[in-house]
From TrEMBL:
GO cellular component, one term: nucleolus
Protein name: U3 small nucleolar RNA-associated protein 15 homolog
Keywords: Nucleus, Repeat, rRNA processing, WD repeat
Residue ranges of domain U3 small nucleolar RNA-associated protein 15 C-terminal in the record: 344-490
WD repeats: 118-159, 244-285
PROSITE patterns tied to this protein: WD_REPEATS_1 (PS00678), WD_REPEATS_2 (PS50082), WD_REPEATS_REGION (PS50294)
Matching Pfam families: UTP15_C, WD40
PANTHER family per record: U3 SMALL NUCLEOLAR RNA-ASSOCIATED PROTEIN 15 HOMOLOG, UTP15 U3 SMALL NUCLEOLAR RNA-ASSOCIATED PROTEIN 15 FAMILY MEMBER
Compartments reported by the entry: Nucleus, Nucleolus
Length: 520
């Protein structure tokens, strides 16, 4: 007696994710570490100097974390109300932060009490940053003003009141120590020069501006607001280069990687998109649990930190490459040992002992082997199989039809089972890979259960759905045939067109023109 051959399930090619160098690079992070803060995280900033600690601003506290610490190594909590936008100076020794009461604090990373307190805003200050000369601070608040401060004397240098709504973001140029930029909810981005009394450039973003970013070269400016991320050429007077609309909700934060070749944007839609700064196409995306308010990337892209609205800090560290190399070296001897002798060819005097290989049969294969057709069909009509692997269900139906027992397996079923069968057939009959088998199944179901039509409203409804699905598919096929007929007519017109070929024969200085008609 021949051994039972399992049912062959037709394998269909699946469209997989395109694996690129960016995909491999940005997937090279460990499982994220979750740190709970006291409130929504409105700002994350990495120190530019080693050991690259990062400051997290949430509620009325500023926490400083080490790169691999899950507990803050230092805390600034002397704020009467909420703190905003704690930002490092270029040397990593000072921090500047705004507050809900309108003050601007200058903090020493190694101390506790504020070094300077700048008073001048009448409403909350959400934007604070250092100019590249390290001795001046700019700030922007909800009183629509932007102020430049002198650190040594703790005095106001100049104040600008050109915005007509809240000033919520800003950045300073690393090329020019007198230039800084602010973004406002009045839909504008303004570029200020400390040597002038008014802004030198105004850019219309079109939506309330949530974040601005200046490239290290100082020539390109990125603004984020609404669902849009826009790139502007500052050297050409604020000319729009590209407008990106890859988020579904408001974009709240922007960040560049260490090389400046990738731009990151975080949004309330819980996604971080990574763009190439050459083509401005999305090369990778991260998905998070809740809406994103802040984002920062450490030097060399070793750590990515995301702050969310629920007060959770998500920290991802890059996997070390050395450990991967060592683990591969350790596996090589075991692999060679396992493969040893696989290519050995037995000699004529050798006695070969073959060990039979046992194959585990699926439930439906066991039932088919014992000729239980109805139970085998029931086994593949279970919801997990029908929903996720419908090709298995169709393969068993095809095997039953080949054996000639499909009709008997479909007959004798109750209302619930018939409803399940008709639902599956109506949903999958239009798929080309299943159509040949399911059309036969639908024909048999109609013949078997035609006498009971009208006795069950549920079964009648499923028959109507099957009729509607088949009718739509027939209409689509007719439309496709019409299109094919039109195309055939066009091709026939092209091929039957008479071509006139001109051949020039030069003999004795005389040109003869011969017209030949050719039909293809």
């Amino acid at each position: 007696m021949a051994a039972y051959k399992p049912v062959v399930v037709q394998a269909c090619p699946k469209l997989g994710e395109r694996i690129t160098q960016d995909t491999l690079y940005w997937r090279g992070y460990k499982t994220p570490v979750q740190i709970k803060e006291f409130g929504a995280v409105n700002k994350i900033d990495f120190s530019p100097a080693p050991p690259y600690n990062y400051a997290v601003t949430a509620s009325s506290r500023i926490h400083i974390y080490g790169r691999y610490s899950q507990e803050p190594i230092k805390t600034f909590s002397r704020f009467r109300e909420a703190a905003y936008c704690a930002t490092y100076r270029d040397d990593g020794r000072l921090l500047a932060a705004g507050s809900e009461d309108g003050g601007v604090c200058l903090l020493d990373v190694g101390g506790k009490a504020p070094l300077r307190q700048f008073e001048g805003h009448t409403k909350p200050v959400h934007v604070v940053g250092f100019l590249s000369d390290k001795y001046r601070i700019f700030s922007g608040g909800d009183d629509y003003s932007s102020i430049l401060w002198d650190i040594p004397s703790a005095t106001e240098i100049i104040s600008y009141s050109e915005h007509t709504d809240y000033v919520r973001c800003g950045c300073a140029s690393k090329v020019n120590a007198d230039v800084f930029i602010t973004g406002s909810y009045d839909h504008t981005v303004k570029l200020f020069d400390a040597r002038t009394k008014s802004s030198v450039m105004t850019i219309e973003h079109g939506h309330p501006v949530e974040s601005v970013l200046l490239f290290p070269s100082g020539g390109l400016l990125v603004s984020a607001g609404g669902r849009y991320v826009k790139v502007w050429d500052v050297l050409k007077g604020g000319q729009l280069l590209v407008s990106l609309k890859n988020h579904h909700k408001t974009v709240t934060c922007l960040c560049l990687n260490s090389s400046g070749q990738r731009l990151l944007s975080g949004s309330l839609d819980r996604h971080v998109k990574i763009y190439s700064t050459t083509s401005y196409k999305v090369v990778h995306s991260f998905n998070y649990a809740t809406s994103i308010l802040s984002l920062a990337l450490s030097p060399e892209d070793e750590t990515i930190v995301v702050g969310m609205t629920n007060g959770v800090l998500n920290v991802k560290h890059r996997k070390p490459e050395e450990k991967n190399e060592n683990s591969q070296k350790k596996r090589q001897p075991a692999y060679r040992t396992y493969m040893k002798g696989r290519t050995y060819m037995p000699k004529q005097e050798d006695f070969c002992v073959s060990k039979p290989v046992k194959r585990a049969l699926r439930k439906y294969d066991k039932l088919l082997r014992s000729f239980q057709s109805s139970k085998a069909l029931d086994a593949v009509l279970e919801p997990p199989i029908m929903l996720h692997t419908p090709e298995v269900t169709v393969a068993v139906m095809q095997e039953l039809h080949r054996r000639g027992t499909l009709r008997s397996a479909l007959a004798g079923r109750d209302e619930k089972q018939v409803n399940l069968l008709l639902t599956f057939v109506a949903r999958r009959v239009i798929e080309p890979r299943f159509t040949p088998v399911l059309v036969t199944v639908a024909d048999m179901l109609t013949d078997i259960y035609h006498p009971v039509v009208g006795q069950s409203a549920v079964v009648d409804k499923q028959f109507l759905k099957l009729k509607e699905a088949v009718g739509k598919e027939i209409d689509y096929q007719e439309e496709l045939l019409e299109v094919l007929g039109m195309m055939d007519t066009l091709f026939a017109t092209f091929t039957k067109k008479t071509d006139t070929c001109l051949e020039e024969n030069k003999s004795n200085g005389v040109t003869e023109i011969i017209e030949t008609n050719r039909s293809y």
